[in-house]
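REQUEST FORM: STRUCTURE PREDICTION
Request ID: SP-0412
Submitted by: Lab K.M.
Chain count: 1
Length (residues): 223
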Amino acid sequence: MSRYLITGVSRGIGLQVATGLIADGHQVIGVVRPGKPAPLAGFAGVWELELTEPASFADRLTAQLASLDSLDGVVHSAGIVRPGSLDEPLIAGFTDQFTVNVTAVAELTRLVLPALRAAGGTVVLVNSGSGLSAGPPLASYGASKYALRGYADALRKSEPLLRVSTVYPGRTATEMQKEVRGAEHAEYREADYLQPATVAGVIRGVLALPADGVITDVTLNPR
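STATUS: Completed
RESULT:
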């Protein structure tokens, strides 16, 4: 039985990853917003974090980190999108997206590094197709995901005891995709997209890879 920490467990890909790992008998710590109930039973723990405030993580997690001796993996599934054109005022959008999509990821990973090192754990970063090809109306979102790619490279070189994997899902049937399609003034058709459970299955496969190998990058697109 392994122990994993997963962000974004309230819905979508993160919820599906947590559901599958719990069903397989693993311990899962879910990260939720303060005051928000856990979305399913069976969590080994629930950490309440406001991802827009990464400077608060260390103080909020003092007790949890003190008791966390080892951690087999972290899945950073949480993320936000703020569609917009680059000729519009986007300072708030850039700030929000970089804070949640990059800074919060880096800070939470930093705090659990001792536990990850102890287990030789795996860090899975859920990126996006926009992290491979950025463009309107998701230019600032894509920029944040490119930054996440850079963080993955730096973490991999800085922490040789860990496995660092980035998953790039294409369009996936989530609430975020509905928001994106609205920004594109286009129809949302769920059947056209990947299912969250499909992406979650790939992530669980990355986590389950034998210790002698690492999947550094995997791209998944709708059929």
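NOTES: DSSP finds seven helices and seven strands in the chain.
Reviewed by: T.R.
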